[in-house]
Amino acid sequence: MDDTAMVEAKALVKRFGDFEAVRGIDVHVRQGEAFGFLGPNGAGKSSTMRMIACVSPRSEGELRVLGMDPDRDGPRIRARIGVVPQQDNLDSELTVRQNLQVYGRYFGLSRAHVRAKARELMEFAQLTDRADDEVEPLSGGMKRRLTIARSLVNDPELLLLDEPTTGLDPQARHLLWDRLFRLKSTGVTLIITTHYMDEAEQLCDRLVVMDDGHIVAEGSPSGLIERYSTREVLEMRFLPGEQETAAGQVDDLGQRVEVLPDRVLVYTDEGETALERSHARGLRPVSSLVRRSTLEDVFLRLTGRSLAE
User: Fold this and answer.
1) Domains (ranges, CATH) in the chain?
2) What is the pTM for the complete model shown?
């Protein structure tokens, strides 16, 4: 095992009775990077995060967090990491300031230190003007920023964020992205799970795609797009019932053609050329769009479009 890695796992397994949620994965997270876990519901992301956070023991395999074994050194690891859970678990009857100060005392920090740290974190989270407000009436974005601020009260070297922006509006999401960029620039290592592909592209240096407990792909966002998709995607919308016929007329215009209920997708490096050639063949879609390939195209190709329950 590499003791210089922030997190390293080899053949990591997590079972719940007869159910195997994580099926022998290898993970290596470097210091100072933003590392992502992508995957549909039930892929094993949260189970992996809980093992890394030292709140759920592994069933098999090797795991080191900050160079230590979670089974032996759980308290020492937890003292040096921060965790942002999927659901905010703030104390709604306390004020913003009190949530930070009380949490800081759990780490044995002095009252003077946590008072100063609370002021610093409220400024970081843009909550200074709400310092003495109770948590309950705060907006979802404010609560999420407070949860992230609270996870930083012990100056963690590693920050685990489970679906950090789920349910937030675009403005709140972008503000949180800015806060996370700032954290990364100070040397904090981030591990993120997210369902938002644009978020993964924005935040992650590297990521893995998980499906059914396995890692099915690993790399940088741009590297994964290059490997599993094309430079561009031509989207053509047709009237109901016309998609299959249209797909048969354009199946040689790209590396891959996908038929959806309302449109046909042509994966190609030259979207405009493919559109011109489809027009030359007499196709007249209701609308058309040429766009760049995204991580969502990769995700759907690797994990499918069907819901995983």
Assistant:
1) 7-218 (3.40.50.300), 230-292 (3.30.70)
2) 0.90
